[in-house]
């Protein structure tokens, strides 16, 4: 039993370490993913009501280096966080989050050529950028739906009860907001900037909710590392010697 207990304690430390890494990564990614809030301080020339956030890092925009750095940072933190926690439950959802981070990186590497809201002759449909943006949304909603579903069916894992309660409503709200941004792609521009920025806030809220689930759920697992080693003995029935005290031998 001594070796099992020592291994369980080591595993508990590893869970705590991975939990801190994942929680910090998700919080940082949520903040960087909403770097568009700097529009209030940085002279972008864009009207937030009628422009896509991706116009901030369009190929011909002076703000491209700044907002590209934020996007790369957010994607890197997402991938790091998802890989650190992928084996702790809800595996496919974390792999989808890795895909989300990778697609976000591709989205920045294949930007719009110009900012459609500033240049009337600029086409809002940039083929490669449109494809990468579609992949971003596919992986995002796949991760949201899977992890929200997983959390709803594992309420015993501490903070995952909260993730299960609010995950699906947040997924629905983020999806509706995303659908409301397609006007320019259908040659009906105007006011698409508002729902897109709401969408990004919903995604940031989702990442913070995930961070809470990991923090609280990881604390529960790390606090009870011995359960996995004692459960097989207990399931096997009463194996204590007759007349024993009912406690495991030392």
Plain-language structure description:
The chain is built from seven helices and no strands. The protein has 250 residues and is mostly helical. It has one domain (2-227). α2 packs antiparallel against α3 (91-109), α3 runs antiparallel to α4 and α5 packs antiparallel against α6 (193-223). The termini are close together.
**Strand segment count:** 0
Q: What is the number of helical segments per DSSP (H or I, 4+ residues)?
A: 7
Question: Main sheet?
Answer: none
Based on CA atoms alone, the radius of gyration comes out at 23 Å
Distance between the termini: 8 Å
Tell me roughly what share of residues is in helical segments.
Answer: 55-70%
Strand content: under 5%
Which spans have pLDDT < 50 for at least 5 consecutive residues? 219-250
Classify the secondary structure makeup into a structural class.
mainly alpha
> Mean pLDDT across all residues, rounded?
85
Number of domains: 1
- Secondary-structure element pattern, one letter each: HHHHHHH
User: What general outline do the C-alpha atoms trace?
Assistant: elongated
